[in-house]
Amino acid sequence: MQARGRSAPRRGWSGGGGRWLVWVGRAVLWAIIIVIVVNGVRAPIERFTQGEQPGQVTAQPTGLGFPEAEAAAFAGQFATAYLNFDGAKPDDRAERLQPFLPEGAERQFGWNGFGRMSTGGIQLSGVEVTDAQNAVVTVLAQSGPQRWKLSIPVYYADHRFVVSGQPALLPAGDPAGLPQAAEPERDDVTESELRPQLEGFFKAFALGDATQLQRFVVQGTTLDGFGGKVTLAELKTVIAPPGGTSREVTAVVVWAVPTSASPAPEATSTDPTAQSAGLEQAYRLSMEKQGDNWYVKSIRGATRSVG
């Protein structure tokens, strides 16, 4: 018999099983979220660290603290002394080389004292840095029709340089092969209209008179002329493509450049050195047509040679 006032105990849990399943579900959900977050953070870290492992291409410092600009200037001066020699005056070269060579180096630094060579146009080609004190500087030079490279080992310490070994003379290479350009489309009528206008423009451009130039340029455009240092000898070619009132025109002119040489006492009027030089030049002109006339908007060098 059941005790009075009390109900019989129920078998099982009253709602306890449902709460247990909820907590288990929440735990599983949080576990999934943690796994997703960990994988999301780990992936970029692994990609980053893999990039630093051996066998991967990584950026390396190029300067290593070596003063490349100063070394290039030093090597250029050395090349000027090294690549200019005259068998009739060997001591001159030895004296010029002395400030560049280490103590005890042979005075002519490999030259046998014969022949003659005149070299100019020394320009930097590149600097290969080994460490903070050593580099190989390569310069370009020209002797007559021949272009050269000269690679010079240089040592640096205490803010000073010295040539640390024999240089290496290398060929600079032949000119690149230039492919034949296609013949441009031409507007003969416009070219005839442009020729007298461009002749006047180039004469004013050579003279450098701002008032005269304003007659040939677009309003608001200012161009600096040559100031009389050259004169127009010939407007050789005008090439105008088909189009509207704005065109990119190519013009080839011949400038007469006054000689800078002092005439010899015995010079005659036919002496070539006493005559003005002629230099053929190619220009690109941006032009606009306003009314019946064409006006220059800008002038710059042409991209390719034209006939």
Automatic annotation (TrEMBL):
A Pfam family matched in the record: TpcC
Transmembrane segments: 20-41
CDD domains hit by this protein: TcpC_C, TcpC_N
InterPro entries named among the record's database cross-references: TcpC, TcpC_C
Record key words, sorted: Membrane, Transmembrane, Transmembrane helix
Name used for this protein in its record: Conjugal transfer protein
Source species taxonomy: Bacteria, Bacillati, Actinomycetota, Actinomycetes, Streptosporangiales
